Structure formats: C-alpha cells, structure tokens
Amino acid sequence: MKFGEVTPKDAVGAVLAHSVSCGSKRLKKGAVLSQADVDLLLDSGFETISVAQLEESDISENEAAEQLAFALAPEGGAHALERTVPFTGRVNLVASGAGVALVDREKLIAMNALDPVISCATVPHMQQMQKGGLVATVKIISYAVPKEALVRAADLARESISLKTPQLKTASLLITADAPSPSETKAVDVIKTRLDALGVELRDVSMTAHATDEMAQALQTFQSDLLLILTSSATSDVQDTAPRALRQAGGEVERFGMPVDPGNLLFLGKLNGRSVIGLPGCARSPALNGADWVMSRVICGIDITAMDFAEMSVGGLLKEIPTRPHPRRKEK
Question: What are the E-state strand segments in the chain?
Fold first, then answer.
C-alpha cells in the first residue's frame, strides 16, 4: 500500500485518508474516490489530497477484518459467536447468548505480535458474558494490509476465540440459619439473579439448622443439576460442618479454598455425579466475587483443575465488599 499526498486527478480508486469539505458536500475519510469525487475536488480547488493506494498484493481493511474474524471464530462451529458487518476495518465478535468466553492467549499474542496494523482485542479468558456482549473486536488499523500477512495472522490465531454456553439447567440451594430472616431472603434473591444470568432455574430452596445431619439429609433430597450451599457460619476448614455434611450425604469434597478475594472460603465437590458448590459468605452480595468465577465455569461444563484455581490468583484481588465481617485492612 502506498500512502501520501497526490493530485486529485491521480486519486481515482484511492482511499481518502482524511475527510474533506467540498462546498456543501463532505467526502468522508475511508471513501474510495470515484471520478465524480475527483472532479468535485478539482472544482473545489484542491491541489493535493492524502490517500492510500492499494497495490495488487494488498487486501482492503474491511475485507481483511472480515476474513480474520472468520478465521478466529468460523461459522458453523461450536463458537456461539456472531460477527458484525465490517466497518472502518473493524468486525466485532458478539456473544449469541450467555456463557463464558474462551480465549487462546498464546495464539492471540502470537497473532498480535505479527504486524502492528493487524489486531484483535478480547475480554479476559473465562469472563462471563451475556447475550449481545462484545467478546472480541478485530481491527485492521491501516486502510489495507498485504494478503500474505493476513494469511499468516489467520493461521496463527485460527479458532482461538469461542463462547462456552451453559450446560446445566437447574439448581437447588441449601441455606443454614436459625430461622427465616430478611437477610436470607435477600441472599436467595441475589443467588437467583446470578443463576438467571446463565439461564439456570433455581428449582428449590431448603433451610436447615447449621448441623451436619440435617444438612446431609437435605442434600440427599435435591435432584437438580447443581447443588449450592450457603451457611450461616463460614466454612473455615475442609472438616467443617458443610463439607462434612456433603461427605455424609455420600458426596466428596474436591477443593476447599481459592486464591480469589473476596471468595477465599469456597469449596467444590460432587454428589451423585452432580457438582456441589459451598458458597462463601460474600455470595450474599451482588458484587463480583470468586464464587461467580466458579459458578459460571461449572454451569458451562468447564472443569476446574488445581492449576486453574492457581491461575485465578492473578487478577483475583477483587473489589472489597463493604459489608464484609472481616475486611482486608484493620481500622487504626
């Protein structure tokens, strides 16, 4: 691609680099100049204009953005992403529904390191998305790029962005409390809102005393895809009441504790093949916390390994919840 100033008579078929006014008419940046446009420029007294002139080995910005977006998330695959119509060298990848964004970090970095004018920015890997949410934006920064560079970029980042959609449909919630209270009702509403965002129905809510036997019996009655436990007293050890109740019900505890704050005191387990999440107390608040990261992945059928939990630590220091019983910093 050639870029620079030329006389209007040499600009037919070139891309206008900057918007210009020709009397009452305005020629917009990015317009491919026709003979009529050139005549208008000459009549308006322009001696030179800034343009981009594509060569045979180039591909225009919109076509390049469209081809790259298609490579990142091909049609007909399990990517659950929609592509917008290209404009000014940009194509957006939008979530077709709720889910979790999956981004191949190594592929995207390799692609973005190839050529500064070929770019793609994404949301963080594993970010929860809603329908219509912007997952990625492909942007060709110049008016054209060499076809060879575009082919290399597409090969480097092929199928690197997708959306994992919810796999679980129903959930049950066990709350331990001495008696029903407005605060527990509010907690149920907050958790229901979280589940609704992922298309999961909160099928039933049971309230028991904070006691192993009663909790175990309640867990055994649940038939939903996902079982949630919210205790009146925070779980502070893998042998504490809630994890013990899960084991007594015939389940197992796979993980206690996570390096995300708020959210440290979460536990994860299984009961009859179904996932069980022991929610930390911060799940009573609508503010983002570690439980959100775990719930979204579990609901979307994404396994969470010990390394996955470890990787959550980077960026896992979330905004403090004002109502937290034990803040990070002690008051002086």
Answer: 2-6, 15-16, 20-22, 25-27, 49-53, 58-60, 81-83, 90-95, 99-103, 118-122, 128-129, 134-140, 144-146, 161-164, 170-176, 201-208, 226-230, 252-256, 267-271, 274-279
Q: How wide is the angle at C-alpha 40 spanned by C-alphas 35 and 43, nearest 5°?
A: 125
Distance CA 3, CA 14 (A): 10
pTM, whole model, 2 decimals? 0.90
CB 97 within 8 A of CB 131: yes
pLDDT tens, position by position, 9-49: 999 999 999 999 998 999 999 999 999 999 999 999 999 99
Residue 148 exposure: Cα atoms within 13 Å on the Cβ side: 4
Q: Is 293 helix (H, G, I), strand (E, B) or coil?
A: helix
Comparing C-alpha atoms, which of 229, 169, 181 is closest to residue 205? Answer: 229
What lies within 8 Å, CB to CB, of 57 at 6+ separation is 146, 147, 148
- CA–chain centroid gap for 49, Å, is 42
Give residue-wise pLDDT tens across range 136-174: 999 999 999 999 999 999 999 999 999 999 999 999 999
Beta bridge partners of 146: 58
Q: Which fold has domain 170-311?
A: Molybdenum Cofactor Biosythetic Enzyme; Chain A (3.40.980)
CATH code for 58-164?
3.90.1170.30
Residue range(s) of every CATH 3.90.1170.30 domain in the chain = 58-164
What are the tens digits of pLDDT across the range 180-207? 778 889 999 999 999 999 999 999 999 9
- How far is it, in rounded angstroms, from Cα 212 to Cα 114? 58
DSSP-derived 3-state class of residue 135: strand
Split at pLDDT 50, 70, 90, the class of 178 is: confident
Residue 4, both tokens: 């620079």
